[in-house]
Amino acid sequence: MEKYKFDLNKLISEEVSGVFKQHFFTKDDLLSGITFEDLITAVHSNEQEINEVSVKKTFEDMAKANLLDSKTLLKSNMKYILKELKKSNLKEIDLTEKTDDELEQAIKDNIIPAADKDYENWIGHPSKFKWELSGGNKFIKIIRNDGGGKSVWGFVALDDGIFKGIPYVKGDVFKAASWNAPAKHKRGSVFVAQDWKWTGPDYLR
User: Which of 24, 64, 113, 114 could join 196 via S-S bond, C-beta 3.0 to 4.6 A?
Assistant: First the structure.
């Protein structure tokens, strides 16, 4: 039997010339993260035996698919990226950000005070965090600045939609999987007051 060859460039070419060409948004992720939850679900769904080999194989397949999607997205938008780069230095580009006044107010009313209070209860004195909100196409990113560096507290959904096959509604709060990507499954709603942790939304129980 002839050995199977994975022709990445051919698949990218077919994707780019097909119906899946993506529209250019400067805030989109080029490479989304793979969470442990995603990996565990995929192993349970696709592998007959659960062992170290099947876990590694599933992860490699997922990473390969993510890389293919990312390279396709990059290639289909290359002319737009080059156009933006020619305008000015990348740091000086005026990126269009989508946000929502109602959500921003809810974040300031329900999440930030609770996170600051949790930190004060934990450390014994008020926090000196500076909180920042960054708009995107689908989520508002909440950033915590502790004076020594920045980290992503979490994400809030801007509108109703579907993320990794799971429906969500406006205001749903997600844990961060990476700087630019939320983790799968919502952890609550920004419109409902709760004891948010200063480190971010809780892990699923």
Answer: 114
Of 39, 68, 92, the last residue of a domain is 92
Model pLDDT, residue 27: 54
Q: Which one, of 137, 49, 151, 150, lies nearest residue 99 by Cα?
A: 137
Report which residue type is found at 198.
W
Q: Are residues 112 and 170 in the same domain?
A: yes
Residue 89: its pLDDT value, please? Answer: 45
Q: Which pLDDT score, from 0 to 100, does residue 29 have? A: 65
Nearest of 134, 128, 102 to residue 115 by alpha carbon: 128
Are residues 14 and 88 both part of a single domain? yes
2-10 long-range contacts, CB within 8 A, separation 24+: 6/64, 8/67, 8/68, 8/71
Strand 139-145 relative to strand 150-157, pairing:
antiparallel
22 located within any domain: yes
Indicate the SS3 state at residue 196.
coil
User: pTM value?
Assistant: 0.53
Q: What tokens does 28 get?
A: 């989109």
Q: What is the DSSP letter of 97?
A: -
In a domain, residue 1? The reply is no
Asked whether the predicted pLDDT for residue 204 surpasses 60, the reply is no
The enclosing H or E element of 70 equals: helix 52-76
